[in-house]
Specification:
SAUR_fam; 7% strand; Auxin-responsive protein SAUR68-like; 2 domains
């Protein structure tokens, strides 16, 4: 009786109420679709050994995997790096320089004021577990815009890529 009187009051024909979805069921369906969409979203994965993977040839998803962050270089190359790198003096200096040069990004990506070769070099140095004093020296060299080259490095530190002799382009 109450349902019939409610239908008459709202003037919804009875045959339409059989096909209507409740708000609770609609919310449940929306959450399910959101979950499926986020699962199917392509993400860039990083092998643990490499540390810094250039994602220029990968997809363009703005989302990094858990435990990683994304930075771009001045020449528009994208790097997905582990969060542990945020504690390194070199990256602290690069972020300070990026803030001075570009300001703090509100909705855009973080852009470092150096090219991809410089970031590749820094990542290679971090992966080789360079000494703290060498890390600080590299941070100072980057800060003073003196690009480190193979002639500045100790003989026991191998160059990961011979093409990276001109390291940074500021």
């Amino acid at each position: 009786q109450q349902q019939t009187s409610f239908l008459l009051q709202s003037r919804i024909p009875y045959h339409l109420t059989d096909n209507m979805i409740s708000a609770k069921k609609l919310l449940k369906m929306a959450r399910k679709w959101q979950k499926l969409a986020s699962i199917k979203r392509k993400r860039i994965t990083l092998p643990k050994a490499t540390g810094g993977e250039i994602a220029g040839s990968c997809n363009t998803s703005a989302v990094a995997d858990k435990g990683h962050f994304v930075v771009y270089t001045a020449d528009k190359r994208r790097f997905v790096l582990p969060l542990e790198y945020l504690n390194k003096e070199i990256f602290k200096e690069l972020f300070r320089m990026a803030e001075e040069e570009f300001g703090l990004p509100i909705n855009g990506p973080i852009t470092l004021p150096c090219d991809a070769a410089c970031v590749e070099y820094v990542v290679a140095m971090i992966q080789q577990n360079i000494a703290k004093n060498l890390e600080k020296a590299l941070a100072i060299a980057i800060a003073t815009e003196c690009c480190p080259s193979s002639s500045y490095l100790p003989p026991h530190v191998p160059i990961p890529n011979p093409q990276i002799l001109q390291i940074c382009s500021f």
